Amino acid sequence: MPETNRTRSSQDAVLPRGVTDALLWRAAYDVAAAHRPDAAGRCSSLLCAGRPAPCEPMEAALRAMRMAGDAGRAEYGEPDARVAARRRRAA
Asked: Which of the ends of the chain has fewer CB neighbours closer than 10 A, N or C?
């Protein structure tokens, strides 16, 4: 029988100090990894069809990482500053 286990990026990630919900943090990490911005500043996920980063799934993933106890800072950057910058550009 072929092996069906897949390796997710969160399996290799080290949990930040202060994380109290490892399952939530790892699931959010995987979503954030799938929605990283490309060199042009657009979401690289096919689901987002090249929308400007940070996309909604990335924002939700970063929020979930904070809720998991990650002391407000995710590996993918400070989400609040990026969200505020995107809203200023849209206005």
From this structure: N
Range of the domain at 76: 16-90
DSSP 60: H
Q: Is the predicted pLDDT of residue 72 greater than 50, yes or no?
A: no
Note whether residue 2 is domain-resident.
no
**H or E element that contains 10:** helix 9-12
Element (H, E) at 89: helix 79-90
Residue type, position 15, single letter: L
Q: How many domains does the chain have?
A: 1
Taking only the tens place, the pLDDT of each residue in 44-59 is: 999 998 899 999 999 9
Among 87, 76, 71, which residue's Cα sits nearest to residue 28? 76
